[in-house]
Amino acid sequence: MAEFRFSIPLETRYGDLDPQWHLNNARFLTFFEHARMAYLVHLGLWDGKDFFKLGLIVADVHVSYLAPVEIFHKCRVDLRVARLGNKSMTFEYRLVDEDDGTLYATAETVMVSYDYYTRKSIPIPAEWREKIKAFEGLSD
């Protein structure tokens, strides 16, 4: 399995918790989404402003919750693109404790390249494909 070449630090906040004082299950998805957006900005694929230029929608998501995350835990999300298809790509994620390495969750999202104006899926832009392949060390 390829290494994770992109990570982003996060810290759990009071508002992220559920009534059991654990990171709410939906917040895991928010953390992964935040990491995905930071990845796209890091690779120069999105300016962080025009969402209609972004052109990605979630087609499928899976999360495996492995350990509870509590308030003020310093975590990081590791992210990689594991697969590039014609119109879709698969992102893989890990939520890890920054201090002791506890693996809190793993996840996968299938993202579809999308034209918001025509409301149709489109091939992944060549620029995106080349930048992702170069960053991730993917081959054809």
Automatic annotation (TrEMBL):
Pfam families in alphabetical order: 4HBT_2
UniProt keywords, alphabetically: Hydrolase
Domain of life: Bacteria
SUPFAM superfamilies in the cross-refs: Thioesterase/thiol ester dehydrase-isomerase (SSF54637)
GO molecular function, one term: fatty acyl-CoA hydrolase activity
InterPro entries, A to Z: 4-hydroxybenzoyl-CoA_TE (IPR050563), HotDog_dom_sf (IPR029069)
PANTHER family named in the record: 4-HYDROXYBENZOYL-COA THIOESTERASE FAMILY MEMBER, NOVEL THIOESTERASE SUPERFAMILY DOMAIN AND SAPOSIN A-TYPE DOMAIN CONTAINING PROTEIN (0610012H03RIK)
Family, per entry: Belongs to the 4-hydroxybenzoyl-CoA thioesterase family.
Protein name: Thioesterase domain-containing protein
Source organism of the structure: Anaerolinea thermophila (strain DSM 14523 / JCM 11388 / NBRC 100420 / UNI-1)
